[in-house]
User: Fold Histidinol-phosphate aminotransferase from Rubricella aquisinus.
Amino acid sequence: MTQTVTPRKGLLDIPLYVAGAAKAGHANRIIKLSSNENPFGPSERVKEAFAASGAALERYPDSGHLDLRSAIGAVHGLDPARIICGAGSDEVFTFLCQAYAGEGAEVIHTEHGFAMHKICAQAAGATPVEVAERERCVDVDAILAACTDRTKIIFIANPANPTGTLVPEADLVRLADAIPAETLLVIDGAYAEYVRDPDYNGGKALATTRHNVVMTRTFSKIYGIGALRVGWGYGPQDVIDALNRVRGPFNLTGPAIAGAIAAVQDQDYVQRCSIENEVWRDWMTKELRGLGLSVDPSHANFVLARFADVAAAQSALEALTARGILVRNVASYGLPSGLRITVGTPEECRDTIAALRQIVGMRT
Ligand SMILES: *Cc1c(COP(=O)(O)O)cnc(C)c1O
Assistant:
């Protein structure tokens, strides 16, 4: 059979998404700090709700996610009618690109920005446009300079992944003020709950008041239910209505909806995890700098350690993996001399720093 059926033009150029490592050779204990998961897992209330949801597996879930949208709206002070839920926020990015950015459209993402922004644009047939960052920070002026009359979407993760940097609120407002009226600004707040900066609102102020700003959130990070795949977006009513046209019915499973409702209602747990994360994020930053590595201040639940060169990062990655410590190689993000390390439990953080002290020490 030499004949093949050809996929749509450009489709095979899309790089496959590479997930953080999950396995390490023969190490008997694995410390997984490669995917920014909550090291404490979900709250007890989530585990109970998820277990209870197993009693009605024959039932289709609520296709419109009304209870989940209402719970999110109540907790965040948002209109549930202007919320859309997806199988992870990745699915919301897909809806956005399908609805607003087909063939001929340009979608802006930033130099070290999250891989799925670009992948979703390409999958919809749009042209991704990469915009340079300044010292690993999103550069609002460079984004404005890259806008054309074909720019349909601008994706910014704030805090950014894998850099952990934050765009100040004033810059976001300046960006929203100056983008073309026909362009959607998507503020991806996957790490919003980790930000301790009092000025930060995760895009809520803009998504509430502007006709062309959408914010997204996820249950995969601080809420600790990446396995259930739930994310959401909030924006102008007409945008949410358009996204609902491309959303398949029943895109979230019943157990996922039940788990997410319990998760969003347990804000005490979120608060405790965020405070604990801040303590150990700052400790990791200080310790890594003490080992001679460069680390920007992070606003998320990971730190990006920059080594002297690519070889040093690569050998540290291998030595950590051999000890069962999995961190993220970020070469595909244009940061080949960096390693992204999720903030783990206190014990995991201490063990990782102790291992790196040995590894870095052996090289000098
Ligand atoms: C992890 C992450 C997401 C979340 O993706 P889900 O599909 O909701 O699991 C979104 N954006 C960024 C920048 C992330 O790092």
The mean pLDDT is 95. The longest strand covers residues 151-157. The chain has two domains: 23-41+268-362, 44-265. The first helix runs from residue 44 to 53.
